[in-house]
Write a structure and sequence with these properties.
mainly beta; 5-stranded antiparallel sheet; 18 strands; 51% strand; globular
């Protein structure tokens, strides 16, 4: 039998133990390019650890999920961070958990919606347990920044019983 996992809004403070919220609202910014462009500076900490690391920029296209969503597994990346920034204005979910002795604890689910400053993304710090991409209601494209290079940067954990995020 699955347990109920309640959604909460994504805030910088609530997400801080797991990574960074990538958004322009409240971010340090300044004008560049002769005043024609605003730079929102240093929005997330990119982490590249291990042997021969190199940054990757990729595009992910997430299939549409519809509530309720069942959470039965989480993954983490031990030698690099992983940032997701939507290229669409749709809603999506972020599910994370604290580490408990090499296994994820009880998950926390965040609803991500565009904020006052526009689209919002997240950057999972290295070794943070999280669910793979969950785009709600319609497929969605994401710009992803993570680590390439030598070594394995993926661990998965499957719960014996899972959680349900209700509709």
């Amino acid at each position: 039998m699955t347990q109920i996992l309640r959604l909460q809004p994504l805030t910088r403070q609530a997400f801080k133990p797991f990574g960074d919220v990538i958004e322009t609202d409240g971010a340090h910014s300044y004008k560049i390019n002769n005043g024609t462009t605003t730079r929102f500076h240093d929005l997330a900490k990119v982490e590249l650890l291990g042997a021969e690391p190199r940054p990757l920029i990729s595009m992910f296209r997430g299939d549409a999920f519809h509530l309720p969503v069942h959470v039965t597994m989480l993954e983490r990346h031990p030698v690099g961070s992983q940032a997701f920034f939507p290229l669409h204005a749709g809603k999506w979910l972020v599910v994370v958990a604290e580490d408990h002795g090499g296994k994820p604890g009880e998950p926390i689910a965040f609803l991500v919606e565009p904020g006052p400053g526009g689209l919002r993304g997240v950057n999972y710090h290295h070794n943070v347990w999280h669910h793979p991409l969950i785009t709600l209601d319609a497929p969605g494209d994401f710009l992803v920044v993570d680590r390439g290079g030598a070594g394995n940067n993926l661990e998965e954990y499957f719960y014996q019983t899972g959680w349900t995020i209700p509709g």
